[in-house]
Amino acid sequence: MPPRLQDLPQIQTLLDQPAIAVLTERYSHEETAVALRLIVGALRDALRGGREVVWPDFESMAFAAEVTAKIEAGRAPSLRPVINATGILIHTNLGRARMAPQAVAAMQSVAEAAGNLEFDLSTGKRGSRHSHTERLICELTGAEAAVVVNNCAAAVLLSLMATAGGRSVVASRGELIEIGGSFRLPDVIAQSGATLREVGTTNKTRLSDYADAIEPDTAVLLKSHTSNFRIVGFTAAPARRDLAKLAAERNVILIEDLGSGVLVDLSPFGLRDEPVVADILKDGVDLVMFSGDKLLGGPQAGIIAGRRDVVAQLKAHPLMRALRSDKLTLAALEATLRLYRAPHNPMKEVPVLAMLSEPLASVQDRADKLARELSTIANLDPETEQTAAYVGGGSLPQQDLDSFAVSVALDGMSPDDLMTALRSAATPVIGRIERNRVLLDMRTVQDCETALIVAAFTQISAA
């Protein structure tokens, strides 16, 4: 006789069984009860839906093992390492930039001991948390002063609140950006207490448009780097130097939101659309904001650099305390910034820059090696193919990078099901689907991760 709903045992009955009672002592009564409810609930749903049910022996050790597995799954960390095989170097959903070992070590060292976060070791008196990164940022960018907050959106908000609250901000219509998470620049300007004055058109804004819009209550000319989209064709925008000269003549501040921001010239690697922070400041921009966790290759942070008097306004603003960075972020950022100084080579030691600049032949070698190893697994059909990777993270829109991927198909399993299985591996593998096959782009996969990918496919094939 097939099982019926009334055959499902009560949770308390299951808890009273000896094999299950052991689990309440090893874990907790509540965790065990929750696991039992999930298992019994799944059986109930299957019966109600008329689906085939594999009825367990509720008194067996096999059932106790199933409950144990459910408890352990519930205890697994929610935030876990994954293998980024998407070909997107700065993948926002996958945590953006992979940090350098030096940055990870710096975080650990200040996390497991007391530190001089706001303590001046030379005087024995209270110090400033801003001092740990400010000197390095100024050295690398040529800024007079700098401050770090928890992300670039916070940097924009703080900068506008401190310099333009209650006054007006002039910005080009072609630069009123929206980025991920519905972050809209006009909304941020409104939230800062400033009034937006739009000038120009979507594709053309002239210097005269800015000049005509400046009034006695104007505080800021705001320039935003269109890092996540591109306007092409019949376009025009004033040069930064001309905007800076206008701002100085009219006694207003020129601020630029870079979004990403780089400290080194990436044009030798074919990436010519991302301006270097130092060059922007040389052009006369008073304040520039950029991210720490994108092309800079560090932790999530918003870096603000520029004129000493303007940065001092930001440091003194009441919102600064709400947006300030913690000791782990500052430790990781300081360690990352040090990799841009001699004798270090950031293109080799900062992971995101190393991925970006890795020779194509090296990427192909890694793809060929993985394909050979996967070819030994039954029912698996791996192939190496040339493809395109992307910088991502709102940086360098439509700019692709030559890459190689391993294209995989598994007999009897659809690409969607294979992707699901890969996400369920001990170390989840995140790829993409193209032409009805799973693609694992090797530009974003490290050499040490290929063994984990092979282990994932071995487990899936054996299931």
UniProtKB/TrEMBL annotation:
Name assigned to this protein: L-seryl-tRNA(Sec) selenium transferase
Top-rank EC class of the record's enzyme: transferase
Catalysed reactions, semicolon-separated: L-seryl-tRNA(Sec) + selenophosphate + H(+) = L-selenocysteinyl-tRNA(Sec) + phosphate
Organism lineage string: Bacteria, Pseudomonadati, Pseudomonadota, Alphaproteobacteria, Rhodobacterales
Source organism of this protein record: Sulfitobacter noctilucicola
EC number: 2.9.1.1
GO cellular component, one term: cytoplasm
Cofactor: pyridoxal 5'-phosphate
Gene that produces this protein: selA
Function summary: Converts seryl-tRNA(Sec) to selenocysteinyl-tRNA(Sec) required for selenoprotein biosynthesis.
One term of GO molecular function: L-seryl-tRNA(Sec) selenium transferase activity
Subcellular location: Cytoplasm
Family: Belongs to the SelA family.
Domain of life: Bacteria
Pfam families: SelA (PF03841)
InterPro entries, sorted: PyrdxlP-dep_Trfase, PyrdxlP-dep_Trfase_major, SelA-like, SelA_trans
